[in-house]
Amino acid sequence: MKDKRILLSHGAGGKLSHDLVQEFFLPSFDNDLLRALDDSAVIPVESSRIAFTTDAYVVKPLFFPGGDIGRLAICGTVNDLAMAGARPLGLSASFILEEGLPIKDLERILASMKGAAQEAGVKVVAGDTKVVEHGAAEGIFITTAGVGQIPDNVKIGSAQAKPGDAIIVSGPLGDHEIAVLMARGEFALQGEVESDCAPLNGLVEAMLKVCPDIHCLRDPTRGGLATVLWEIAASSKIGVVIDEGQVPIREQVRAVCDLLGFDPYYLANEGKLVAFVPEGESDTVLKAMQKQPLGKESAVIGKVTAKNPGKVLLHTPIGGHRLLEPLSGEQFPRIC
Amino acid sequence: MNPLPRHDEGKLAPLLLEKIGELADLPMRLMEVCGTHTVAIFRSGIRSLLPQGVELISGPGCPVCVTPAGEIDRAITLARRDGVILATFGDLMRVPGSSSSLQQERASGADIRIVLSPLDALQMAQDHPERAVCFFAVGFETTSPAIAAAVQEAKRKGLANFYLLSSQRIIPPAIRALLSGGRVKIDGFILPGHVSVIIGRAPYLLISEEFGLPGVITGFEPLDILEGIYMLLRQREEGRTSIEIQYSRAVKEEGNQHALAILNAVFTPVDARWRGLGTIPKSGLVLREGFSALDAAQAFDLPYEEVEDPPGCLCGEVLQGIHRPPDCALFGTRCTPEDPIGPCMVSSEGSCAAYYKYGRGDEGK
């Protein structure tokens, strides 16, 4: 089937649909819970609380340096669970395929999902596929949902930040959005920035092991760091002070931002987290993070204050300060 | 781009600020002409560091902001024509015309594409010979040489489907108009670094010679801006008024003669309308006769219709430094970046957008 494409008949529920599932989807995600092929997967749960989340994935182009829509669909949902402190138990994946999608693209996306699921140690336990007419989608849309169980001693939430908390990010910001922007080729930009797309549940587990009392965890996806900080400041009714000189941003990302007039604090990330950690435990958590492959470049970037509740204040390298507001609309490149 | 590692900024800034403080015994109102300076000043928190007497006011140097609504309407009319691809810089997308914006037109099905360079639009014309690719040329002297080069290249290649809707402007005539108007008190100018890379120092001499004011051509890093401010204060201290270059690592006395030659070969100055400033003599650029076949306004018969400013909007006064954005009753209430009424709230370099995004309140001072 190497040069073949998705046909509307692949979605008609007959032999071709069956073949598509048997030939491509089942081998990619094979596990005991999925293999039963019942209407629902049945998952045993040990803890008293579960986390439950869903996300739809659309990205252009489907493949970009450092990832693709499949990797994004696994990591995004795993990360949403991890940000609640939950250990992922299982994911579902629904596919909307556009008539004409090359089967080899589908294979590549499924292989990438399989790889990401293995990295995260999570099973895809349920799925669905529909095919729509050519032009009604852009190649492939994926929706994943996930459930995870939350250890009883973990109480993470956006309203939990306390004055004195240290704010830690797990590495340089903005790589994902800049990588996708460059892969789109619209701006004739070329560079070596790769998306940071990765499952963060392992990193979170290592953090919770040394500090079960982490107050807030968020992954700064669309809207970036600025939006996450602002939302936590509003929910927890605290002030946030960020030391701009400590915020890790790659030189290439900074250069593209300078060129386009973008602010890196609003760029999307797909493999970074922001943690609000109790005052006395920031060193322990930072060290634990830096030992993890996805946390090597972690840094403390600021702290929580009782002053200025609901506001995010940025101290600039020259000693000035300014407010950081959430993103409004989308960032458009400027003229000169 | 950055001349110094970031950690050095933290060491050098206090030294410059101390020298600024020593010279700031009397009030001084400085206008940063360029929108890129406005944003850099807010982003680096310079306003929070300057002594009280030194006041910074934003000027007319945001190309999106000074483009009249009538010219946006003309681009919209063009984008609606069959077979047209309108190529535009990104920050024009949201600017309101009289009843729509390019962003709304794109959502309604017009083929409007964002480019970073006029050469991208030229490539688009080569890739789509069956379509008319029209580049909405908005910008100052910084961008005009590249646009001129694209026009020359289109002519050389004999491309019959590449057009220019020119809405380009030049900075020095606007400074003269601002000072002649006498509506705003300015004690000195932080002059735009990028524009000056092209035009050099001479075009600004009118500031010192006709109006007896100092000016410093300044770079965009926080330390550049602090040094530019210090140089302006020092001129006052020494009783001088001249045009100096702080941004000497990029700006030459004579500018970029090669770029200017290309610009002058393709474009010729005409009287142009500026939002807020009215019609300014010889302040716009249109295609010279030899290139008029590429003029979209002629080829597509696009007449200009005057559009009244939205009621209550103070963008005109803000662009002249007469009012600050928060003085406008619409600011932050009916006019926000999500739902802008005036153009200064639209562009990332507009002063209303910068005030809204970075400057509301002085918490933590």
Describe this structure in words.
The complex is a heterodimer of chains A (336) and B (365). Chain A has 336 residues and is α+β, with helices and mostly antiparallel strands. Chain A has helices spanning 15-29, 32-35, 69-82, 103-120, 175-184, 201-210, 224-236, 251-260, 282-290; strands at residues 49-57, 63-64, 67-68, 87-98, 124-132, 140-150, 166-169, 216-218, 239-243, 274-277, 299-305, 312-315, 321-323. In chain A, the strands form 3 sheets. In chain A, strands 8-10-7-11-9-12-13 form a 7-stranded mixed sheet. In chain A, strand 4 (87-98), helix 4 (103-120) and strand 5 (124-132) form a beta-alpha-beta unit. In chain A, helix 1 (15-29) packs parallel to helix 4 (103-120), helix 3 (69-82) packs parallel to helix 4 and helix 6 runs antiparallel to helix 9 (282-290). The radius of gyration of chain A is 21 Å and the shape is globular. Chain B has 365 residues and is of the alpha/beta class. Chain B is built from 15 helices and 11 strands. Chain B has helices spanning 6-23, 35-43, 63-66, 69-80, 102-107, 118-127, 144-157, 171-181, 193-199, 205-211, 222-237, 257-266, 296-299, 315-319, 351-358, and strands spanning 28-34, 54-61, 84-88, 112-114, 132-139, 162-169, 188-192, 215-218, 243-245, 267-274, 278-287. In chain B, the strands form 2 sheets. In chain B, strands 4-3-5-6-11-10 form a 6-stranded mixed sheet, with helices on both faces. A 5-stranded parallel sheet of chain B has the order 2-1-7-8-9. Chain B starts with 5 loop residues before the first helix and ends in a 7-residue tail after the last helix. The model of chain B is unreliable at 361-365 (pLDDT under 50). The chains are: A alpha+beta (336), B alpha/beta (365). The interface between A and B is large, with 35 and 57 residues.
